Amino acid sequence: MMLQSFIVVSGLLASLAYGAPATALAIELVPNPHTAINNPVDVDIANNSTLVARGGGHDAKVYAGRGCSGDVVLQRNDWGCSGECISLTKEAQSINLHQDNSKNPKPTGNMYTGSSCTGANYHVGIWANYLDGCTDAPNGVVWRSMRLWFNC
Fold first, then answer.
1. In this predicted model, what pLDDT tens digit does every residue of 112-144 receive, in sequence order?
2. SS3 assignment, position 105
3. Which of 26, 31, 60, 80 is most buried, judging by how many CB atoms fall within 10 Å of its CB?
4. Which fold has domain 58-149?
5. What is the DSSP string of 12-62?
6. Cα 87 to the center of its chain, rounded Å
7. Taking a C-beta distance cutoff of 8 angstroms, is the pair 100, 56 a contact?
8. Could you count the other beta carbons within 10 Å of the beta carbon of residue 141?
9. Are 74 and 86 in contact (CB under 8 A)?
10. What is the pTM (predicted TM-score) of this model?
């Protein structure tokens, strides 16, 4: 059996101090260059059933045309939970959200008709068990800004 040494990178203590529930935190294992193999803090990755596969890498491509076609107006990769407002440089009519595997959490967002995330908004996402979700703006509507979320 091969053991790998890892550091658990988490905001657990800081988040608990601020009252956030531990279940809302993402825990990431990264190699620990300062710990020897077979040290008591080693993790047996192959047999640790408490590790949960997450949604993997994710990206969004916003398109000028409907059906996720035409010029790519904006591409955004691996965002988090901030939901920051992103103004588009050109008007858009569709967005494709993609993730590397179909597990939860899923990337999601809102598209807005006005700049600076104002005006009418439309929710976009990916259906269960799919890797991609292309969402068109309703007929006659163009999007000018957006917010994206992942693992909130």
1. 999 999 999 999 999 888 999 999 999 999 999
2. coil
3. 60
4. Gamma-B Crystallin; domain 1 (2.60.20)
5. HHHHHHTT--GGG---EEEE-TTS-TT-TT-B-GGG-TT-------EEEEE
6. 19
7. yes
8. 14
9. yes
10. 0.63
Nearest 5°: CA angle at 4, between 47 and 22?
65
Output the CA–CA distances (angstroms, integers) from residue 28 to 6, 10, 19, 52, 54, in the order listed: 10, 7, 20, 10, 10
Q: Which residues contact 90 (CB under 8 A, 6 or more apart)?
A: 64, 71, 73
pLDDT in tens, 62-73: 999 999 999 999
**Sole residue written with tokens 């703006």:** 137
Domain ranges within the chain, ordered by starting residue: 6-47, 58-149
In the sheet with 132-136, reading across from the earlier edge strand, the strands are 72-77, 58-63, 94-99, 132-136
Percent of the residues in the chain that have a pLDDT greater than 70, as a whole number: 63
The torsion angles phi and psi of 136, rounded to 5 degrees, stand at -90, 145
Amino acid residing at 12? L
Looking at the DSSP bridge assignments, the partners of residue 124 are 109
**Cα 20 from Cα 75, distance rounded (Å):** 31
